[in-house]
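Practice problem 4.
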């Protein structure tokens, strides 16, 4: 999110919007998005692909957790 073109839409987003990123992803920088009301969630140890490097089991669990969050979010729409 270092690129302003990525930050701008999130800055204007409201509480109906949701964005996920991984803590091991250098592009995921929620601290740069000021004024957003979107829900920003950081997934611990995940990279840009939302995977944990060198641990396919952790990646699989993480993917299931992320999909559960997406499923929950879609159900509320």
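Answer key:
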């Amino acid at each position: 999110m270092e690129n302003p073109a990525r930050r701008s839409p999130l800055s204007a987003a409201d509480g109906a919007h949701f964005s996920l990123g991984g803590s091991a992803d250098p592009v995921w920088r929620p601290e740069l998005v000021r004024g957003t009301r979107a829900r920003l969630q950081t997934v611990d140890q995940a990279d840009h692909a939302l995977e944990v490097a060198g641990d396919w089991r952790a990646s699989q669990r993480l993917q299931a957790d992320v999909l559960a969050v997406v499923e929950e979010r879609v159900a509320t729409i």
